[in-house]
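Appendix C. Worked example: Carbon-nitrogen hydrolase family protein
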Amino acid sequence: MNPTFKAACLQVNATTDLQHNLDTAMRYAVEARAAGAELILMPENVAMMEWGRSNIVLKAMPEDDHLALKAFRELAKELNCYIHTGTLHVLLDGGMVANRTYVLRPDGVAVAKYDKIHMFDVDLGLGEVYRESTTFQPGDRAVAARLPWGKLGLSVCYDLRFPHLFRALAKAGCDFLAVPAAFTKVTGKAHWHVLLRARAIETGCYVFAPAQCGTHANNRETYGHALIVSPWGEILADALEQPGWIIADIDPRKVADARKKIPCLDHDRPFAMPPKD
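Step 2, the predicted output written as structure tokens:
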């Protein structure tokens, strides 16, 4: 198998209409596959951008019956490629929801699934407040998916602000990191590019960051700028602010090159923590 491949990240403006969202994502995936993508990654909340606990729980579905997961399984088979499903709202026993991502083989079988660990409970000011922990049950384990070209470490959106997760994934042998997101416009302008580049530089991994963009339910605004970043921190593709997709050539050998130049993953040393005041 050729060691290089093409990866594509989708950028969408998801609504509260499941079928509309699926049609859009699948159309972009078909276009990206026609351009040569062998790995296609979708953003957080790709199938649904609802607002409020009651609405999210009402439209979440059990894993075995999830219409979006079934559609993406068929899409992987139709396109004969690997598909990262972004995140889907999976209804759990007890009324909580998992913000869950899947990695599908070309035969539609899931080789990995991951539940978002870190909950976005923040107050950004001017009335923009998020409390994911009231609706979503956080995951409790790091996950990597084995692909033909290497290992893909999984994360979701707010996880990006917890660098120890990505370092752990890299030290577990990951060559690539997926960061599907619905980053707010406010935080995206300030931090999105620099955090994604930092995670790539710190780990020597490629970073794939599909994204939501535009205005959604309850006037929620997301930043866009789906990115593909090299292990050296270079931005290889940027989707800017409009829906669509980006694609880049990926050479896993550059992971080893970056880590050879700066082998910081091998340089951890124990240290004592300062006391808390």
